[in-house]
Amino acid sequence: MPRSHPTQPWPVPPTAPYHPHRTSGLAITSFILALATSLCSLLSAAPPPNIVFILADDLGYGELGSYGQEKIKTPHLDQLARDGLRFTRHYTGAAVCAPARCTLLTGRHLGHAEIRNNGDSGNGRPFPGQWPLSAGAITIAKTLKSADYATGGFGKWGLGPSDSTGGPNNQGFDRFYLPFVEPHLSMQPPQDWINRYPEDWDKDNGPYRGQNGYLPHPRPRAGYAAMISDLDEHVGTILKRLDDLGLRNNTLVIFTSDNGTTHPGNDPKFHIGGVDAPFFNSVAGLRGWKGALYEGGIRVPAIVRWPGKVKPGTTTDTPSYFPDWFPTLCQATGAKAPAALDGDDLTPLLTATADFKRHKPMVWEFHGYGTQLAVIDGPWKAIRQNVKSKTPGPWELYNLSEDPAETNDLAAQHPDLLQRLTNISATDRTPNPRAKLPLYDNK
After folding, report:
1. Using H for helix, E for strand and C for coil, what is the string for 118-154?
2. How many other C-beta atoms lie within 10 A of the C-beta of residue 83?
3. For 63, 81, 290, 389, which has the most beta carbons within 10 A of its beta carbon?
4. Which pairs with CB-CB distance under 8 Å and at least 24 residues apart come from 161-165?
């Protein structure tokens, strides 16, 4: 697919209808690389704030300089971290694309989400798209529209074909553009970025010939680094445009990723798509990759800049996750949050104006990769693998404060704590006909 070099994030896309009564604009702008990024931008000239939400695809926890990356250049995102708050324990809502986006847009965790794994829409077309959100789904875009925000989106969607109930225009977006400009996952970065990385990087493993899926690349290590640097450059373009338009001081910028780096494939030299994640230490020593509820699959970078609200150059190790952004954006904009959201408002944490207290533990019920369950409550994490198999894995328990790499299973030492967390997994959920779980549904 041809490439795109967008030059401006419009407050309202030029083809969108003009709403003179609206005071703010929401746009989700995407640059689909092998790391497919999506950018949601609430742009206005006066309070309530504009919001730019940048969602990278498959960007690992350790792939930015501000998160310890030593090989890949990410100067714009590193500056964003210096200008704002960096989260060291932020989690995606799922370990793959569609359910992660579902939890982000609806504020419901995987035990309540409509979409709990990637899945074909079933429309029979050659390119069917993902299973759609229902017409009754309440999304952050719908809610912000009710608060007089103009909404629009650009890039990867993954929550239903455009003519389905899950299409973005049916889920609260005034405009949504899918630019066929850059690939998903395939390494096709601009040559100028490839040329900035050492040729000797790829002498050990040699070219990637497509054996683990997607397209081949003659210099896969340089190609992967180039994709992330190109993403960083796109982010810099957006941030500069905010400055040029005089919107910086009234714009809340959020950057994060939908899951961890791609997992290994048949050829042990490469991960899916030709990625050499160990070479880059892509998950910063954490366990697991995309598709796993271990930390490497769900702990993701997250940076927030909000001039006058968020203190620059700060860091938080407070656990948070995708369902939190819905109530947070409602609080930030004055929009009325719907009932029964699973997330918590992070504005006390962002602004350091009050103590942040989570009203219940964080929950995952992921129906991909053998079906996995997880619950996080402060430093403690319970996780179970292969739940739908004939021999489900045992519950494991980790103290993430002392053991972020999840190497020391403490289940036997803390049976009462483990029982409390597993009870939450079993009870804080609703049955889903497309994500049946006999372990719980039959009780």
Report:
1. CCECCCCCCCCCECCCCCCCCCHHHHHHHCCEEEEEE
2. 18
3. 63
4. 161/121, 161/123, 161/125, 161/128, 161/129, 161/132, 162/129, 164/121, 164/123, 164/129, 164/132, 165/132, 165/133, 165/134, 165/135
C-beta of residue 55 within 8 angstroms of C-beta of residue 257: yes
251 phi and psi, to 5 degrees? -125, 125
Instruction: Identify the pLDDT of residue 200.
Output: 97
Give 308-356 as a DSSP string. Answer: TTSPTTEEE---EEGGGHHHHHHHHHTPPPPTT--S---HHHHHTSS--
Measure Cα distances from 434 to 113, 119, 154, 304, 375 in Å. 11, 10, 28, 35, 22
Q: What is the DSSP string of 186-252?
A: S----HHHHTTS-GGGGTTT--B-STTSS--BSSHHHHHHHHHHHHHHHHHHHHHHHHHTT-GGGEE
Residue 57 main-chain phi, psi, to 5 deg: -110, 125
Return the ∠ at Cα 133 (arms to 129 and 147), rounded to 5°. 125
Between CA 284 and CA 393 the distance in angstroms is 26
**Dist. CA 413–CA 194, nearest whole Å:** 50
Whether residue 279 has pLDDT greater than 90: yes
Match 């001039």 to its residue by tokens: 307
Q: Tell me the pLDDT tens digit for each residue of 160-184.
A: 998 999 999 999 988 887 765 556 7
Q: Which residues contact 124 (CB under 8 A, 6 or more apart)?
A: none
Q: What is the mean pLDDT of residues 262-273?
A: 96
What is each CA distance from 59 to 167, 224, 255, 307, in whole angstroms?
25, 11, 11, 25
SS (H, E, C) 270-291: CEHHHCCHHHHCCCCCCCCCCC
Burial of 391 (C-beta count, 10 Å sphere; 0-12/13-18/19+): exposed
Q: Hey, how many other C-beta atoms are within 10 angstroms of the C-beta on 389? A: 10
Helix-then-strand count for the chain, H and E: 11, 14
Q: What are the φ/ψ torsions at residue 127 (nearest 5 degrees)?
A: -120, 85
Classified as helix, coil or strand, 362 is strand
Look at strands 314-316 and 85-91 and give their pairing: parallel
Rg (CA), the chain: 21
Note the pTM of the prediction, 2 decimals: 0.90
pLDDT, tens digit, for every residue of 52-73? 899 999 999 999 999 999 999 9
